[in-house]
Each structure stands twice: as structure tokens, then as C-alpha cells.
Amino acid sequence: MENQVQNLNEILKLRREKLTNLQEQGKDPFVITKYDATHHSTDVKDNFDELEGKSVSVAGRMMFKRVMGKASFCNIQDLKGNIQAYVARDCIGEDSYADFKKYDVGDILGIEGEVFKTKTGEISIHASKVVLLSKSLQILPEKYHGLTDTDTRYRQRYVDLIMNSEVKDTFVKRSKIISAIRRFLDDQGFMEVETPMLVANAGGANARPFDTHFNALDEDFHLRISLELYLKRLIVGGLERVYEIGRVFRNEGLDTRHNPEFTLMELYQAYTDYHGMMDLSENLYRHIAKTVVGSEKVVYGENEIDFSKPFERLTMIDAVKKYANIDYNEIKTTEEAKALADKLHIEYEDRHEKGDILSMIFEEYVEEHLIQPTFIMDHPIEISPLTKKKPENGEYVERFELFINGWEMANAYSELNDPIDQRQRFEAQERLKAMGDEEANSIDEDFLNALNIGMPPTGGIGFGIDRLVMIMTNSPAIRDVLLFPTMKTLD
């Protein structure tokens, strides 16, 4: 180990000496401000018939170099891929070739030259000019082992993107997914808006917020846990179709599907209900799969997720009956529900009621079976403080969650627009908060005032973008689809 550290220090020292020598010769790469690349690597390869014999320029990181006397080969990696360059002393000149031989793997180069094909059939660039655009003073991981330690990969994503092409592909797809969502919603007449991240009242979801203090106002604020309450204010204001894609923050644990800051997309549409939101969700997922993946069937792990078929629609009670063989319609009281929970060895708290127990049974016995896209509808009112009651049964609400691969992917409502009912729900949440529930909502008087002004019948939905990207890129953990996931600070 000591020898490895010593060798590394020697290598790093040598790289700095090379930089110093270049600077002393008036060849400081860090004074270069731009380089005009005409093509990316794959552009050259994909259009070889058109570009053969023509001059192009590419720019990227040198990932490989083989010096063979008066001529050398190197490999340049850019955003889209990589391409080989043939660098000969007689073509670029003695001084330039002498400099090139001292360049290191990791250096960023600009290469200009003619497109040709080697004797082995590899499309390459015959360099006529090589420019050092940036000197790498740190070494990249060893080529054949790459960067495999997941903790290091997440902490040093910039290295991960360089060394692992599939990681770069994942984040290119993430960008395309978000673009596809925007195009889809724009075509449906939705308007993208932005709402505050710093809020006095963090409502719209059951979650514990992060707290902060705003010095200028000498007032405590929270980081938002949801986008809901501000977006619904805009529906009141007459913006009939709105959406926002943005970061929300929940002070909860870390696991393969949870990160304390994550990307949420919420949309609200006036004059529709949760059935309209189901139709929109189904069409949106199909659009994303076809646009980004190229197929309405997507492989995730051992499963093929089929977005081409109509998504199954089950009430929560029907799902519990189907997968747990329990008819919850026979449960009439909270006492009966808790007795059933005891029989099933499901833990609960004194404050939990009949509807809470149903949700717990669903989570325990049903979720894991919902591999194909499934809408679970009609949740108990106890776990849905912002949702319209079902007219025929006030114990349940017009809400659905979309499940794929056993995960909750989206949450949607026929939005509650009765300000009197909403106040009562908020007051019930306040009682839960007083009993120690840190995730319960607080009364939002301004939001209630907006509802008093009048909100039309509205459908709303929230999508977790990160889980969506996981499914569409076959990524096993949420950290694999976040460029910079939350990590514990190293000592």
C-alpha cells in the first residue's frame, strides 16, 4: 500500500511538472478559452460515407494512447462516444508530436484531420493538428477495472460518467424522459409553472420537512415536501391546466427508492376527476416508453413491463381481497380492524383507525404483486386529507396510486374543493400532529381562503420522476438515477 501511494504521488508530481514545462514554453492549456469542434465522435462514424477524406475536428478526453516511434494512436471520448485518431510526426510537425507524446490519459484534446478507415476497418481521424485544451492533473481509475465502488461512483459522479458509458447513457435518457414529459403535457394544453421551495407551511403530503431560518425576515421556513397547495391556488386563479417539475425535500431515510431530495412532477387539470388522471397517466407512460426506450415493453430486472396493454384498475378493497383473500367490507369498526391486524401480526398505533389498517394490510400483502402497471383506487379517507369523498361512501375517497414493479409510481386525486370539508380535514391532521405525528399536515389558512374563493372540480396527480427513470433505464437504485445523491459527509 505504501508503495502504491508513493507511486501515485510520483505520477501526480510528474503531471504537474509537465504542466509547468508547458507554461514555461508559452503553451499553457488553461489560457485556451474555446475550441470549434465540427462533429462528435459518433457523427463521424455514422456519416463515414459522406465524410471520408474530408477534414473534421473533434474534442474530448484522451482515454488511450499508444506511441509507436514516428506515429501513434489515441482514443478520444466525447459526449456521444469515442473515436480513434492516428497521430503522425510528419503530419503534425516535430514539436507538436514531441508534445503529444508527453500528453497523459485524461487530458482533453482537440483533434483536426481527415476521416479515413484503417487497415483493420476502424473509422478514424488522420490528425493534422492536435491541441491540448486542458491538462489532467489527477489520474483516472485503472482502465480494465474501471470505477466499480458504488460509494466512490456516487461521490465522484464526474469520474463515473467518464469511466462508465452506461452511466452516461442513463442520464442522457433521464434528460430525454423529462423532455418527453414536457412535450406531452404542452401538447395537452398544460402550462409549466414554478412555485416556492421555501414555504411557511409545508403541506400537500404526509412527510417530515426540513427546517431552515430566513435571516432577512427573522422567520422560520420549511423546504417544500410537495407542489400541491400552490398549484391548486393557480387552478383557483383560472390557470386551468398547470404542472411543475421540481425538487421536493422530505426528512426521511435513505434506501434504494428514497432520497431526501427528489424530483416530483405534479399537474392539475380543471373540470376532470381521477378517472381523467388515469387516462392521462396511461398515455403519458406509453409516450415516454415509446419515445425514450423505443418500445412500449420495457425490461426491468427479471420482469418485462408492458405499457401497451390497458392498465389494470382495482379498488384497494378489491386488491386486498384478490391478493390477501380478505373481504374488508366485512370490517365495520376500528376495533374489528385492529383485531384483524393483531391476527395478521401487523403493528399499528393507538391513533390508527379502520382506514389506516386497510392501508397497512395493502402494503403488507398486495404491493409486491403489482408488477404490471396497476391503478389502485378508492383509498380510505384517513390517509387522504386532500381528496374528494366518494359520493356513495364517505369512508373512501376518489384517489388512486399507480403501481409498477411493486412500487408506488404516482398518486392522484379528484381534488377536494369544499373549503368547509377541507378545514375539517386539516383540523383532524392538526390533532394527529398534537398526538406526535410529525408527518401530519398543518392548517393552511391562505389555501383555505383560495378554496373559499372557489376552485372548479379538478383532477391532480404527482409522479416521482426518479422512480420513473429507474424503470425506464433498468436502474436498481434511486442513487443510480440521481447525478448527485445525498451522501454522508466524509470525515
How is this structure best described in words?
- The protein has 491 residues and is α+β, with helices and mostly antiparallel strands.
- The chain folds into 2 domains: 2-140, OB fold (Dihydrolipoamide Acetyltransferase, E2P); 163-311 and 372-481, 2-Layer Sandwich (BirA Bifunctional Protein, domain 2).
- Helices cover 36% and strands 26% of the residues.
- The strands form 5 sheets. Strands 6-10-11-20-19-18-15-14 form an 8-stranded mixed beta sheet, sandwiched between helices.
- It is elongated and about 90 Å long.
- The mean pLDDT is 94.
Features of the shown structure:
alpha+beta, BirA Bifunctional Protein, domain 2, five-stranded mixed β-barrel, elongated
What is shown here, in short?
This protein has helices at residues 2-24, 41-46, 48-51, 89-92, 94-102, 150-155, 157-163, 165-187, 228-236, 274-293, 316-324, 334-343, 354-365, 419-434, 445-453, 465-473; strands at residues 55-68, 71-77, 82-88, 108-117, 123-134, 191-192, 198-199, 211-214, 219-223, 241-249, 261-270, 297-300, 303-306, 312-315, 374-377, 389-390, 393-397, 399-404, 407-414, 458-464. It is of the alpha+beta class.
